[in-house]
Design a protein that fits this description.
With 93 residues, the protein is mainly α. Helix content is 72%, strand content 0%. The protein has five helices and no strands.
């Protein structure tokens, strides 16, 4: 079973893993588990990055003198230009 087949199983409406285990080798099950772990890890990293960005923005606004050089650098690296249309859209929503 290749990666695409395992990925398709993940997106099945209601995969019955007990039934599927009759047809899938332990190696393939391990690969599927590793794929799921990778997805969860990516999700958690994005959540942590978002939380850190919020903390950095609040610190930059309310107590910039208490930020370390590393925090200011990270905050600066995360800044991206925003068009006027994007800004209006963000303010509306």
């Amino acid at each position: 079973m290749n990666f695409e087949e395992i990925k398709a199983l993940h997106y099945a409406d209601d995969p019955n893993w007990a039934e599927l285990s009759e047809y899938i080798s332990q190696e393939d099950m391990d690969t599927a588990a590793a794929y799921q772990a990778h997805k969860v890890r990516g999700f958690l990293i994005r959540q942590l990055d978002a939380a850190q960005a919020k903390i950095d923005a609040l610190m930059f606004e309310y107590c910039p003198d208490e930020m370390t050089e590393a925090q200011v650098k990270r905050w600066g690296e995360c800044q991206v230009p925003v068009s006027e249309a994007e800004l209006k859209d963000a303010l509306i929503h």
